[in-house]
Amino acid sequence: MIFGYCSRCVAWLYAAEFKSGSIPWTSQNGIRIADQQHRHECSMCMIVSVPKETVPGEQRVALVPELVPKLTQASLDVLVQPGAGESAGFFDAEYEEKGAQLEQEVLNQGDILLKVQPPTIDEIGRMHEDSFLISFLQPYTNVAAIKSLAARRITAFSMELMPRITRAQPMDALSAMSTIAGYKAVLIAASRLPKFFPLLMTAAGTITPARVFVIGAGVAGLQAIGTAKRLGAIVEAYDTRPAVKEQVESLGARFAELGLATKDAEDKNGYAKAQSQEFYRKQQEIMGKYVAAADVVIPTALVPGQRAPILITEEMVQGMRPGSVIVDLAAEQGGNCALTEPGRDVVKHGVTIIGPMNLPSTVPFQGSEMYARTVTSYLVHLLQDGRPHVDLDDELTRGPLVTHRGEIVHEVVKAKL
Ligand code: NAD
């Protein structure tokens, strides 16, 4: 006997399919329907859960209130842990107003878990089997978590592995976060440099502008160039991918011509390919004069899945003027400067070398907004009839998929473990 239907996912339900049949049901024309204002009891609607991040220093949250309706309109229920958005400036009442429910323990209730930082082993243990996870996962290095996700039969998507194709642009979390990192790196450098950035004509004399050298002009590097230009610095930049020259120049910076042969610099996804040790040695040698002339160096050079290449040697740091600043945006991948200590600020040979970790978390409001947009766009892309559909023929589904049906399914991740 049909008992009623769910007004959200429009599934007709038998009495046995109600989770408890309690309060959230209202009656309309004699048919019982789920109340949109409450997390209802329909066993067909999936629950998206959003926990408070637990990694020390992480201030972002994976979902912001404004995006809750996007999920409820897609027949999903949204559960948010109280205080989850507080450090980013999003408060519990705003989530409730937009249709989410607050629950203290969300990990074991969610069918789909949205996170910023990879879940800990303990968090994975609290998720239920066969649930879905969308998060940054650090899939190439986070061996224990990836194995644990597979062991618990969780279908996990890693936001780092989103294909860099036009269709996936609204889901490109890495680019969104790199934008923040590039911007913030310049602000940090400007506040630590014992000099002004802009040219100033004052009664007390003319101040010459600071010189900034950006190594690696991907998303973070280009944002750093733009921000440093806006602050009035003279900016030079270099990248192994020749295609970047035009982008650097369009921002008003000068492209450093190192005269290195970089024909095979880019893979099919637009990422830099690793170069030979001989190449890096030559690059260091030729780049020495640019580094020495700079007041601020912002290296951002990464090669996916590998330790960041060392591009600034100790000798090059010695060649810099005391008081100069290096903000090493590759610190999380080991650093582009040989003297970088990830997570620390050190002064070596009179040069301040900053190895920031997790810069996107230092702009948590927009960091959360931007990240949440990418994650919800991805989740909506996966949905079919109110639940994620793992279509292995779809490049966007397959690309970030790391674990599925108890297996590690991403070939590159599997090979790295
Ligand atoms: P990234 O963070 O992996 O690397 C940063 C930069 O370092 C890259 O530009 C890389 O070429 C450069 N680099 C690597 N080794 C270097 C070396 N030895 N010396 C100097 N520079 C070096 O890069 P990213 O910011 O993620 O961007 C990678 C590519 O993806 C770019 O082509 C970007 O335009 C493209 N992209 C495409 C889309 C899209 O189409 N949806 C979105 C974002 C980025």
| N-to-C span | 51 Å
What is the number of strand segments? 23
**Spatial strand sequence of the major β-sheet:** 7-6-5-8-9-10-22-23
* Residues in helices, as a percent range: 25-40%
Number of helices: 12
Structural class: alpha/beta
What share of the residues does DSSP label as strand, in percent?
15-25%
Low-pLDDT ranges: 20-25, 34-40
The global form is globular
Query: Using only CA atoms, what is the Rg?
Result: 25 Å
- Return the average pLDDT rounded to an integer: 90
Bound molecules: nicotinamide-adenine-dinucleotide
Largest sheet: 8 strands, mixed
What does this structure look like?
- Helix content is 28%, strand content 19%.
- The protein is globular and about 80 Å long.
- Helix 5 packs antiparallel against helix 10.
- Helix 7 (244-250) links the parallel strand 14 and strand 15.
- By secondary structure, it is an alpha/beta fold.
- It has twelve helices and 23 strands.
- An eight-stranded mixed sheet has the order 7-6-5-8-9-10-22-23. Strands 15-14-13-16-17-19-18 form a seven-stranded mixed sheet, with helices on both faces. A four-stranded mixed sheet has the order 2-1-4-3, with no helix packed on it.
- The protein binds nicotinamide-adenine-dinucleotide.
- Nicotinamide-adenine-dinucleotide binds next to helix 5 and helix 6.
